[in-house]
Design brief:
Helix content: 55-70%
Radius of gyration: 16 Å
Shape: globular
Order of helices and strands: HHHHHH
Number of helices: 6
Length: 149
């Protein structure tokens, strides 16, 4: 089913009004990721690798490398991890484009960006399994230099 025709995701029921900000934050953070994963899975099912390449390229270029926008970099990193999870074992084919922006964010000035870079790399490596070993030297070097304080 195309993404535009998928049923709307409704927010969870609210039993305690004081938790509303937290619930809405988690809901609106999760919804775009679900859509992104669905978009990538749909393209993968259709064997549309050109579309996947465009999605990954846009996540890298427009978000993960956004110079003056730390929130955009965070979103790009989370998006790259979500796309990697959706790709599953096919992620190896896209690692050459996915890994460099994540590694670049390990040395970002913003601590949140560095945190999301570590979190994203964990999820990417978990899906990529042995394929991530091609980047072992660069990854180890970046991890040794990261400062999360």
């Amino acid at each position: 089913m195309p993404l535009s025709m998928s049923p709307a995701i409704s927010p969870p029921p609210i039993r305690h009004p004081e938790t509303l900000p937290l619930i809405l934050h988690e809901y609106f953070k999760l919804t775009p990721l679900c859509r992104l994963e669905a978009l990538v899975r749909e393209a993968l099912a259709a064997n549309d690798h050109e579309r996947i390449e465009k999605i990954v390229h846009q996540l890298c270029k427009d978000y993960a490398y956004a110079v003056h926008q730390p929130h955009a970099r965070n979103g790009g990193l989370i998006g790259l991890a979500a796309a990697s999870i959706a790709l599953g074992s096919e992620v190896a084919r896209y690692l050459e484009e996915i890994v460099p922006p994540v590694l670049a964010c390990f040395s970002d000035q913003d601590a949140r960006v560095r945190y999301y870079a570590c979190e994203s790399m964990y999820n990417i490596a978990k899906v990529a399994k042995g394929e991530i070993l091609l980047y072992f030297n660069e990854l180890f070097d970046a991890l040794c230099k990261v400062n999360l304080l």
